[in-house]
Amino acid sequence: MIRMAYSRVKLRFARGVEVTFANRDKALKQIEKLAEEGIYEPIVIYGPEGCGKTALFKQTYEILESMGYTVIYVNPIEDEEEEWRIRVSPDSRSIVEDVLRVAVGEKGATLVDLAIKIFGILSKRRKLVALLADDIFQAVGLDRAEIYVKRLLNFVEYPPEELEKAFIFVGSSEGITKTRVGRHRWAGIRIMWNMSRDGFRELYEQIPGEKPQFEEIWRLTGGNPGMLKKLYMYSWSADSVIDGIIAARGLKRFIDRLSDTQRRVLLESIEDPDALVFRLREARTRQEKDEIITLIDSLIELNLIVDDVSIRSEHIWIDEPPTTDRDIGIGDETAWQSPLHREAIRKTLKTHQHSDNTRPPTS
Length: 363
Ligand SMILES: Nc1ncnc2c1ncn2[C@@H]1O[C@H](COP(=O)(O)OP(=O)(O)O)[C@@H](O)[C@H]1O
Ligand SMILES: [Mg+2]
Hints:
By secondary structure, the protein is of the alpha/beta class. The chain has two domains: 183 residues, Rossmann fold (3-Layer(aba) Sandwich); 112 residues, no CATH class. 45% of the residues lie in helices and 13% in strands. It contains 16 helices and eleven strands. Strands 5-4-6-7-3-8-10 form a seven-stranded mixed sheet, with helices on both faces. Strands 1-2 form a two-stranded antiparallel sheet. β1 and β2 form a beta hairpin. The protein is globular and about 60 Å long. The N and C termini lie far apart (69 Å). 42% of the residues are buried. The model has no long low-confidence stretch (mean pLDDT 94). The structure holds adenosine-5'-diphosphate and magnesium ion.
């Protein structure tokens, strides 16, 4: 396979601030290897919101083109950089001109369908074709995630004669779809974590202007670049970012609905996220078990925690897996998506008293 050098992509970090794709060397190597060997199934990449999936997909676009692939990138919820809502390698645009013209004006599920259509057309005309479908589950509906993955699997299993290799990446922050997609053998699942300390420092150094010390930012973000972006946008006010999370996820309502057991376990999980699974294993009654399971599921659905950090096999991760570090909310088995997510829960628990007035006050 012909391989040309590729450059690191420029990414929009905030208004007027551009950064160069930093670090993630291991991920880039893994991607090159996959593209060289060819994939057997679509690969769905899960990871905390803001961990850098979209950034990685944009860099992947660059890598794949340098390897001779015709690439289609789609992101139906992209609202900042229009040129990244749908993008097709320049050398193939004329083949799909008509569909592409319609697609550019579309959003949501229709845009995803058109991107898949373009992928289908190009698969019959080119030897190496890649589809990078970023954040598509929200657009097509979380309950339809598996159907879309199955559709994509068909391309890999029954490729047109002309197609030598297909490459398919699907990106999602919706941890709740993971079990649905994972229960069939229709896709390979890879998990991506926040940036490593050194990698994150490379990004931090690129942020202009006066900024808090690296240590402080690391302790707040745990290496989540999206949280760094939020902090930057809110003039480094962690409180504003925390309030934003509380509002966006409706955390007050969530906390209100918790039973006493759930509240107690949640409080413990702030100190150690593994308390969730420990308490589940210890639960004596069926009801207690059910309540803790519901709590864990809700935290996953709200994109606050990730529950598979204990999986250590290499091939399930893209880039480096997280290492246990309770200071930034990473346990052996469960992790807060970032320390700021954890703070949002801590603050809501503290300020939002239990609405059940029948309980005696605790000291
Ligand atoms: N490896 C990286 N190098 C430089 N900047 C990054 C990197 N990863 C993420 N970012 C920055 O952080 C922001 C959030 O990352 P993004 O890729 O949108 O996260 P996700 O798609 O996982 O929610 C991006 O807008 C980008 O500016
Ligand atoms: Mg994204």
